[in-house]
Amino acid sequence: PSENDALDRVVLRYLQRRGYRNAAGVLRTESGLAKRLAEADAASGMSVASAMGADAAISDHLLYHAEAETDPRGAASGYATLREWAQNSLDMYKSELCRVLFPMFAHVLLDLVKKGYAEDAREFYATHHADHMRLYGEDLAALSALSDPEHVLTDPVARKFLDNKVSLKMTQYSFELLVKFLHAQNLISMLAVLNAHLCVEVLKGEPSPYEDEKEGSVVITGRAPEAQRKFNSIKGRWGLVDSCLEIERVKQFRKESKEKEKEAAAKAREEAKKSKKQKKEEAAAAEERDAAGGDEEMEDAPEKKTEAEYPVAMLEDPPNVIKGKVPVPQLDYDAFEEALEDLRWRIRLSKDVLPTVAFFTFTHAHGLLICADATGDVKHVAGGFSDSVVRVWHLEEEDEDDKDKEIPVDRDAKTPRSIPMTEFVGHSAPVQQVAFSPCGKFLLSVSRDCHVRVWSMELKICLCAYEGHLHPIWDVQWSPFGHYFATACHDRVARVYAMDAPFPRRMFVGHLSNVDCVAWHPNCNYVATGSADRTVRLWDMFDGECVRVFAGHAAGVRAIVFAPDGRTIASASDDGRICMWDLRRASCVISYKGHVGPVYSMDFAGGGNLLVSGGADDTVRVWDATVPADEVEKLKEVPADADAATLAAAAAAAAAAKAAADAAAARREVIRRVPLETFPTKNTPVF
User: What's the rounded Cα separation, in Å, for the pair 124 and 118?
Assistant: First the structure.
């Protein structure tokens, strides 16, 4: 269309938006725009300004230039201009301004391919893709393969960018600099991408000097920042159920403490009842025994203490006990008592009292071992191999050939001793994950053959093969109480099974890429999933709804684990970064840096005070996992019958604490920690 027609269309859209329907009808009739407007819209696929979120002036400006310039090759030169300006800006604002470059790059490339400019798209990719290879290598690998308009419509990565807005954060001054530059340089194509495909959360204050490039990487969650905050503010049930082992241990400890106090009080009363004469006689007898020395017979040795002489690790501040909505089975009596006894003698670890680490090395397994797991008592160690076999080593059993021989264990021997081993054969593809049940009687294994198998450790046979997957399965984990288990699949869906049914009870759909890891909340009411889309999502087992989305990683999430108290969750990504998330506030509270490769596994130690991680950099690292208490949680409840002054003071304190918490959240304060200790292996990755 000519410039006059384009100007008439802008005026017509303005009249429609302002509600002047009669004037718009007259303009449409006199200028003959009715037919041409419909044909032009159908040909260009452009939507009117009603779909834009900017103000009227910007909408008119965008509409005029976007309809007059339909050649996407102009956007490529506009991106080059924006890139040069952003990379040459002041260091204070450079990191924030460069965040918009990759979304702009992706949409310009997709627009070129979608409109048939394949050669220009290849040239554009070759010129600018190196800038984003470090943070977005997986997305670039998928985008580089697009050469046909049909590819854009079917490729999952392309659909991820076209169907969802990219969320990113910028300070107010950085955002104003960006918009002013786009207007001053007349880069309307870039402004159109910013308006249509990016959702910028404008923050107050100055850019943080501690943020690196990875922390500012863009993440697609499928929701706008405001909707994301409202979604993450849903109240959850983060407490522990009454039958949880940690709660049972706390109850047992309190009961024993009361019994000790009663015994001490009874002993004190008996001592008080004794007369002064009896006390003198006992003292004299004691002096005579001391003077006699060893002539008298020794008294019987005092009974051995039944309590540990070191601090026992348990939840010092247990969360509220809740009633779970998911029916869970009870552990059998022997397993329950054994688990409680294990908790009874668990040493309390902290940053001042660090643990030791024991490694199990699989020899001659380079390129073959994919995953490993051990029972709680470390009597059995299982490994999943690329030859589709699951192998289990029984560490406390003797080999049949050595039963009649008494061979001392030489820990410095150069040759390994023989350990009984059982092979479970049934999968037809590499085994991706193995997991022992809490009682140690069952073993789960998942494979690329799309099957989940459960094996009996007593019978040493496969009990069942669970169906429902059509793509490779990457992870499987038992619930803390057994019976239920969750799987993570390549088809972007997580599933929950029960042992008594071959098909899934729940299916969690929402991730934008394959699900790589899964974890259970200690109360079994929630399941967490980590994905290659760089997000961690929390799902409610009762209704299958997603209740939290944690975005902040610069690479795919590889491992996740809940804290024993159920208040926080730790996630690790392929770039080696570990994040600790507060479930109530739905924000990152601690960031750990130290690994230089993917982190394969994590777990809490010492009752939740320490976090231990292992990865591809051949190290096990120990981190401080203590989270500073929230000021709001520190406040004590005030009785309802308190006087007015007390209530007013409590209300003022609560308001001040909430304001401080909001201010800290607005400043995006994240605690950064380095490893407390690093344990290297013999050049072998830690699974």
Answer: 10
Q: β-strands 535-540, 369-374: how paired?
A: unpaired
Tokens for 124? 């554009």
**What does the block give as tokens for 103?**
């979304």
Strand, coil or helix: 465: strand
| pTM, full prediction | 0.76
pLDDT tens, residue by residue, 573-592:
998 999 999 998 888 999 99
496-507 in b/e burial notation, b at 16+ Cβ within 10 A? bbbbeeeebebe
Token match 């990016």: residue? Answer: 198
Query: Binning pLDDT at 50, 70 and 90, where does residue 291 land?
Result: low
Location of structure tokens 């300070």:
171
Q: d(Cα 675, Cα 158) in Å, to the nearest integer? A: 38
- Least confident residue range of 181-185, 539-543, 635-639: 635-639
Contact 215, 552 (CB under 8 A): yes
Q: Among 20-24, 277-281, 600-604, where is mean pLDDT lowest?
A: 277-281
Q: What's the rounded Cα separation, in Å, for the pair 177 and 175?
A: 5
Residue 431 in contact with residue 371, Cβ under 8 Å?
Answer: yes
How far apart are the C-alpha atoms of 169 and 37, rounded to whole Å? 38
pLDDT for 1 beyond 50: no
Dihedral angle over CA of 160, 161, 164, 166, nearest 10:
130
Sheet holding 452-456, edge to edge: 431-436, 442-447, 452-456, 462-466
Strand order from edge to edge, sheet including 619-624? 599-605, 610-615, 619-624, 677-680
- Size of the chain, expressed as the number of residues it contains: 687
Give the start-end residues of each E strand in 339-378: 369-374
Q: What is the percent of the chain with per-residue pLDDT over 90, rounded to a whole number?
A: 36
620: DSSP letter: E
Q: In angstroms, what CA-CA distances link 386 with 244, 394, 463, 584?
A: 36, 21, 22, 40
Mark residue 378 as left, alpha or beta (left: phi above 0; alpha: psi -120 to 50; beta: remaining): left
Burial class (CB in 10 A: 0-12, 13-18, 19+), 153: exposed
pLDDT of residue 306: 46
**What are the start-end ranges of the E strands in 139-245?**
166-171, 198-203, 240-241
d(CA 200, CA 104): 13
- Sorted by sequence, the CB contacts under 8 Å of residue 540 that are 6+ apart come out as 525, 526, 546, 547
pLDDT band at residue 220 under the 50/70/90 scheme: confident
Instruction: Compute the distance between CA of residue 590 and CA of residue 217 in angstroms, rounded to an integer.
Output: 17
- In whole angstroms, give the CA distance from residue 37 to residue 61: 18
